[in-house]
């Protein structure tokens, strides 16, 4: 262990994130390598149990935990936090490449701490979120991806949001629908799904409308729902006048991002939750024509919920434990860790094998 405040966590269950699939297929921007150190163990969606604890870790072996896979100033040993960490925005820490640990956002990108697709991770006490006994592993393993959705929603979807469009109904889009339903009850949620099994899950998780159309039909349907008009340019795809107040782009494709920009009202926001590091075919004209704002999201941090400040990942565990969010229906496959190659091939096959969330079991 790196110090007295550190623990070893034996992984009980791990998830495959869309970003992991990009990573193993080398569909990742080289720019991201500044926050990684090689070789590292992939995987950040996790639930585990403390296997060994340093004397100042404040936790006993056996405790089930979710590890928040971020290594900002505090675990890196800086007594004085950087400005971002001081604000509670530790996902934006300025020292992910400095301090007593090698570069890396956290578990899954950092050489010395392991990752969720291994058997053991090393974590600082500040990263541990206890899992209530009543919350089973296959429920708790969603805390990490749900935290991403919680952060995106709390930071970028106003309380009084009217219509919120969620494009993409893979695991991230579905977690976003669930987070919206739990945290922004006044919003009307319109989800855009590609496949019927995704559409069924989006409806189950609380989307008010689920659309599976593409092209002009999609524009007509969204326009009908929000009372917008479809304008047809001389060439290319349509543009709505009026449109969604906020669009969360969760598919991570150029096509989805382009649709998001065109389906959002003037002055509205497009939140990039999916990862499309060099999207093709995106026309940015809605930014100039209608002041559509585009914002990014990365992990999660300390969030304000009413008068309360709480870490998104703690709030995610609370939502799961209280039964306000249940993402277990997303689990389509479980593989023993030694079959990780099959697990990855399955996770990519969203159409044929209807994969949504694929889990890895180290002990399997
Ligand atoms: Zn992820
Ligand atoms: Zn920092």
Sheet having the most strands = 7 strands, mixed
List the total number of helices: 11
Sequence stretches where pLDDT stays below 50 over 5 or more residues? none
Average pLDDT reading:
96
Q: What is the CATH fold-level name of the largest domain?
A: Quinone Oxidoreductase, Chain A, domain 1
Helicity level: 25-40%
CATH A-level architecture of the largest domain: Alpha-Beta Complex
For CATH, the homologous superfamily of the largest domain is named as: Medium-chain alcohol dehydrogenases, catalytic domain
Sheet/helix structural class = alpha/beta
Order of helices and strands: EHEEHEEHHEHEHEHEEEHEHEEEHEHE
Compose a concise summary of this entry.
With 364 residues, the protein is α/β, with parallel strands linked by helices.
Task: Note down, in words, how this protein is organized.
With 364 residues, this protein is of the alpha/beta class. The chain folds into two domains: 6-142 and 327-361, Quinone Oxidoreductase, Chain A, domain 1 (Alpha-Beta Complex), CATH 3.90.180; 149-296, NAD(P)-binding Rossmann-like Domain (Rossmann fold, 3-Layer(aba) Sandwich). Helices cover 27% and strands 24% of the residues. It has eleven helices and 17 strands. Strands 1, 2, 3, 4, 5, 16 and 17 form a seven-stranded mixed β-sheet that branches. β11, α8 (254-263) and β12 form a beta-alpha-beta unit. α4 (143-156) packs across α10. The longest helix is centred in the middle third of the chain and has 14 residues, at 143-156. The model has no long low-confidence stretch (mean pLDDT 96). The site of one zinc ion has 4 residues, from loops.
């Amino acid at each position: 262990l790196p110090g007295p405040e550190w623990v070893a966590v034996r992984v009980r269950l791990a998830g495959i994130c869309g970003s992991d699939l990009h990573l193993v297929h080398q569909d990742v921007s080289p720019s991201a390598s500044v926050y990684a150190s090689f070789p590292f163990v992939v995987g950040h969606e996790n639930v585990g149990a403390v296997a060994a604890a340093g004397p100042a870790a404040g936790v006993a072996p056996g405790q089930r935990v979710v590890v928040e896979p971020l290594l900002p100033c505090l675990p890196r040993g800086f007594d004085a936090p950087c400005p971002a960490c001081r604000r509670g925005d530790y996902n934006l820490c300025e020292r992910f490449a400095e301090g007593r640990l090698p570069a890396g956002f956290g578990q899954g990108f950092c050489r010395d701490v392991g990752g969720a697709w291994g058997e053991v991770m090393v974590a600082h006490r500040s990263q541990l979120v206890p899992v209530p006994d009543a919350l089973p592993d296959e429920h708790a393993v969603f805390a990490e991806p749900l935290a991403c959705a919680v952060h995106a929603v709390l930071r970028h979807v106003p309380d009084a949001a009217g219509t919120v469009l969620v494009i993409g109904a893979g695991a991230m889009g579905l977690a976003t629908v669930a987070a919206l339903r739990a945290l922004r009850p006044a919003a009307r949620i319109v989800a855009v799904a590609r496949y019927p099994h995704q559409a069924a899950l989006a409806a189950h998780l609380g989307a008010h409308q689920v659309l599976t159309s593409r092209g002009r039909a999609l524009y007509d349907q969204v326009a009908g729902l929000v009372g917008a008009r479809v304008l047809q340019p001389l060439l290319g795809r349509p543009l709505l006048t009026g449109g969604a107040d906020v669009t969360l782009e969760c598919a991570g494709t150029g096509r989805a991002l382009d649709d998001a920009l065109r389906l959002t009202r003037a002055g509205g926001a497009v939140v990039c939750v999916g990862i499309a590091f060099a999207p093709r075919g995106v026309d940015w004209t809605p930014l100039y024509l209608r002041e559509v704002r585009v914002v990014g999201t990365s992990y999660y941090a300390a969030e304000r919920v009413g008068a309360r400040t709480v870490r998104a990942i703690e709030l995610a565990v609370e939502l799961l434990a209280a039964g306000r969010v249940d993402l277990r229906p997303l689990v389509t496959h479980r593989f023993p860790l030694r079959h990780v190659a099959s697990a990855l091939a399955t996770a990519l096959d969203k159409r044929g094998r209807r994969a949504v969330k694929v889990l890895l079991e180290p002990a399997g």
